[in-house]
Amino acid sequence: MALVWPAQGTTLGVDEISGSSNSFSLVNNITSITGIGGGTVTQAMTTALASTVHTFRATIKKPAEVVCDLWFDPTDAVHKFVRNLVDSPTNGPNTWLATMNTGNANSTCQFVGSGISDWTGYEAEDVENNLAASFSIQQTGLPTWTNSS
Length: 149
Fold this sequence. Notes:
The chain is mainly beta. Helices cover 7% and strands 48% of the residues. The chain has a seven-stranded antiparallel β-sheet with strand order 2-1-7-8-9-6-3.
């Protein structure tokens, strides 16, 4: 029987050394993460002229972007590191580690990001909001999933 796990407690870490030292710095204050390990499998049309309906075959996976929203802290070293990946895009690729809060058996997804593909910059909408930012990581290659139980 499948269990339902809360999103609360999910974390994202980045290996600040390009290549992979397997030492991950936590990106603090994340409020939302989408696209972890996701992607789209491109379909090639195989329809013949005599066909009456289109047919397809799967080709290869195009990894999705991972999109993160966070309360931005301009004094946080890891927030600055992520922001600076936009200004110096050739400093990557970097390895990222998402850890889902699955009790004593945390499940992880480790993936390589070719770089930060989008950075919204600082958002300060009104006096009742917090400083915020959003960034997207273009995944490259296949992710590595770890599910301990």
